Amino acid sequence: MLAQGGSMVLMALVMIVKPSTVAPEPGTPVVSLHSKPSAWVGLFLAGVYGGFVQAGVGFMLIAALAGGLRYDLVRANALKVVCTACFSLLALGIFIWYDLVLWVPGLILAVGCMIGAHYSVRFAIQASQATLKWLLFVMVVLACGAAMLDSVG
User: Fold this and answer.
1) How many domains does one find in the chain?
2) Which residues cross the membrane (predicted)?
3) CA distances from 146 to 14, 54, 152 (A)
4) What is the pLDDT of residues 82-141, one digit of tens each?
5) Which of 21, 65, 90, 98 could bond to 76 as cystine, CB 3.0-4.6 Å?
């Protein structure tokens, strides 16, 4: 839990001190992986973190995709969803193999996630980058608070 809380606090601080690091200004050109090798490092570290901890990896992927490769927040979020779906499906397969899946709560959660995704994608497509940037900041702060409460309780 310390890694999750630390990564969330770091991201919140970066968003306050230099918000364009995580959320590029509209019209900023996307950077290719070939021209920015440090983006490989960011994506690799987010992948390792996601494979090990998973909680909060979306924020790290957004930081790598929007901050490192300069994708706008809508595209960065779409790529984040693809990445998390890939390693979540792999993890699900392993949990199914070991018969560790609680199907009823999992399916209820999946339905809730699909409904939430439907409405949040519609909102994200229509919202301004500034609104998305502040919403991302609020979500990071809430995740920090949840991580701290979890570590205390």
Assistant:
1) 1
2) 40-66, 78-98, 104-125, 132-149
3) 19, 15, 10
4) 988 888 888 899 999 999 999 999 999 999 989 998 998 898 888 887 788 788 778 877
5) 65
